[in-house]
Design brief:
Largest sheet: 2 strands, antiparallel
Distance between the termini: 157 Å
Radius of gyration: 52 Å
Helix content: 55-70%
Strand content: under 5%
Shape: rod-shaped
Strand order of the largest sheet: 1-2
Length: 449
C-alpha cells in the first residue's frame, strides 16, 4: 500500500524553516515546563508520602498522566528530530522532501501505539474529581499541534493536582503546629490553676482539642486533597482554589474559648483575696444590722404599745459555711472552683445585707411614726404661736394631752395619733376663725369673728 500525500498544500522551503523554528521554541518551552514539574517540591512530596483517601486515588491517576506526558514528549522530540535531519540533507529540497516534511510538521505524520494511545492510560483529569476514561484504542495518528495540545492538557491537570497538594501542605501543617504549641502552653497554664480533665469543663475541652489536632495533622499529611477547596470561578492559575481551613478554624476558636476561661480563672486568683475580704465585710455588716434590729425591737416593744413589731431572724449559717469553703479553695489553690462559688456568695451576701436593712426598717417603723407625730405636733404649736394663739386654753389642753401620750412609755400610737389630729384640727379652726387674745386682758379675751 502506497503512502498517500498530504491532504493540504505542500509546504515550501520557507514555510518548513519557519515551522521548524516555531516547533524548536515550543519544544524548549515544553521541556522546561516538564523539568520544572519533575523537580516541583509538591510532586516529590507526593511521591514519597504514604497517601490515603482521595489523594492516593488521584495521585495514582496523575502519575499515569505524567508518564503519558513524557511519552508524548518523547514522540514529539523524535518527530522534530526526524524533521530536522530531513531538512539538513540538502540545501534545496525536492518535492518528495517537502511532502515528507509537510506530513511530519503539519499533517498527521506521528503514529502513537500501545500505552501512548488515550484510553490505554489515564487521560487528563481535574484534581477536584475523578476522570472519565475513554474507550481504549491500539494506535492513533496525529499531528504535532494535536500532540502539543494533549501535552498542554496533561501538564495543566497534573500541575493543578501537584500545586493543590503542595498548597495544603505549605499552609495547614505549619498552622496546626503553631496552634499545637499554643495548646501546650495553655495546658501548662491550665494545670497551674487546677483546670484538669475530669475536674473542669475547660480541661476536658483541652483534651478534645489535642486529640482533634493530632488527627487533623495526620489526615492533612496523608490526604491533602481532602482539604482543598477549588475556586468557584474559572481561574487560569495552576491549582486554582485555596486550602480548606474549616476544621482548623473550628479548633482554633475552641482553644480561644478555653483561653478566655483560663484568663477568667487567673483573674479570680488575682482578685480572690480582695473579693473574700469584701464578702466578709458585707456579711459582717448584715450581722451588725440584724443585731441592731433585734436591739431596736426590744426598745420598740418597751416604748410603743398596741403595735405589731415583726420578729428578727438570725444570720444564715449556710453563707458562713460557703465563705469558709471559698477561703479553703483559695488556700489550697483550687482556683477553678472559686468563680461560681464567689459569684453566688457575692449575690447572696448583698441580698442578706438588704434583708437585714429591711428588717431594721420594719422594726423601727413605730419609732419613726412616733417621731413623725412629735414633729407634726411641735410644728403646729410653732404655727399657732406665730399667730399669737399659744395661750388658747383649748389648744393648750389638746397639746398637753397629745404631748403626754407621745412622750410617755409605752406609747399608744393609735391614741397619740388621734390626739395629734384633734390638736391639728383645733389649730386649723382657730387659724381659720382668726381668734386672737385682746392685748392687756389677763388670760386673753377671744374676739368675735
Amino acid at each position: 500500500m502506497g503512502v498517500a500525500g498530504p491532504p493540504g498544500p505542500v509546504m515550501d522551503r520557507d514555510e518548513v524553516d519557519r515551522a521548524l523554528a516555531r516547533l524548536d521554541a515550543e519544544h524548549e518551552a515544553i521541556e522546561t515546563s516538564l523539568l520544572a514539574l519533575q523537580d516541583h517540591a509538591g510532586r516529590r512530596l507526593l511521591e514519597g508520602a504514604e497517601l490515603t483517601g482521595v489523594t492516593k486515588e488521584r495521585w495514582a491517576s496523575a502519575e499515569a498522566s505524567i508518564t503519558l506526558l513524557w511519552t508524548y514528549f518523547d514522540a514529539y522530540t523524535a518527530a522534530l528530530r526526524s524533521a530536522r535531519e530531513l531538512r539538513a540533507r540538502r540545501r534545496w529540497l525536492n518535492r518528495d522532501d517537502l511532502v515528507e516534511l509537510t506530513d511530519l510538521l503539519r499533517d498527521d505524520g506521528i503514529t502513537l501505539a500501545g500505552a501512548a494511545v488515550p484510553g490505554a492510560a489515564v487521560p487528563p483529569h481535574d484534581p477536584a474529581g475523578p476522570a472519565e476514561v475513554a474507550p481504549a484504542r491500539l494506535s492513533e495518528r496525529l499531528s504535532l499541534d494535536t500532540l502539543v495540545t494533549r501535552m498542554n492538557d496533561l501538564y495543566a491537570s497534573s500541575l493543578d493536582l501537584v500545586v493543590a497538594a503542595d498548597s495544603v501542605w505549605s499552609a495547614l501543617p505549619a498552622r496546626i503546629d503553631l496552634l499545637s504549641e499554643e495548646l501546650r502552653r495553655t495546658r501548662r497554664l491550665a494545670h497551674s490553676v487546677g483546670v484538669r480533665p475530669g475536674e473542669h469543663p475547660a480541661g476536658d475541652d483541652l483534651e478534645r482539642i489535642t486529640e482533634a489536632l493530632t488527627r487533623l495533622r495526620a489526615q492533612v499529611i496523608s490526604d491533602p486533597l481532602a482539604f482543598w477547596r477549588p475556586a468557584t470561578t474559572g481561574s487560569s492559575a495552576p491549582g486554582g482554589g485555596r486550602p480548606d481551613t474549616t476544621r482548623y478554624d473550628r479548633e482554633a476558636r475552641a482553644l480561644e474559648d478555653v483561653r478566655r476561661e483560663i484568663d477568667a480563672v487567673l483573674a479570680v486568683r488575682k482578685d480572690a483575696e480582695a473579693r473574700l475580704v469584701k464578702l466578709r465585710d458585707t456579711l459582717s455588716r448584715a450581722d451588725r444590722t440584724l443585731a441592731e434590729a433585734r436591739t431596736a425591737r426590744g426598745e420598740v416593744l418597751a416604748k410603743i404599745a398596741a403595735s405589731e413589731v415583726p420578729a428578727v431572724s438570725g444570720p444564715p449559717t449556710v453563707l458562713q459555711e460557703q465563705l469558709a469553703a471559698a477561703a479553703e479553695h483559695r488556700r489550697h489553690g483550687r482556683w477553678h472552683r472559686l468563680p461560681p462559688l464567689l459569684e453566688t456568695l457575692e449575690e447572696r451576701a448583698e441580698e442578706e445585707l438588704l434583708r437585714a436593712r429591711e428588717s431594721l426598717t420594719a422594726v423601727t417603723a413605730p419609732l419613726a411614726v412616733r417621731a413623725e407625730l412629735r414633729g407634726r405636733l411641735d410644728a403646729y404649736k410653732a404655727k399657732v404661736s406665730q399667730h399669737g394663739m399659744a395661750e388658747d386654753p383649748l389648744l393648750v389642753e389638746r397639746y398637753d394631752t397629745a404631748r403626754r401620750m407621745l412622750w410617755s412609755a409605752p406609747c399608744d400610737l393609735r391614741a397619740a395619733e388621734g390626739a395629734v389630729l384633734r390638736y391639728q384640727h383645733a389649730a386649723a379652726e382657730a387659724l381659720a376663725l382668726g381668734r386672737v387674745p385682746e392685748q392687756g386682758a389677763p388670760g386673753g379675751h377671744r374676739g368675735d369673728s
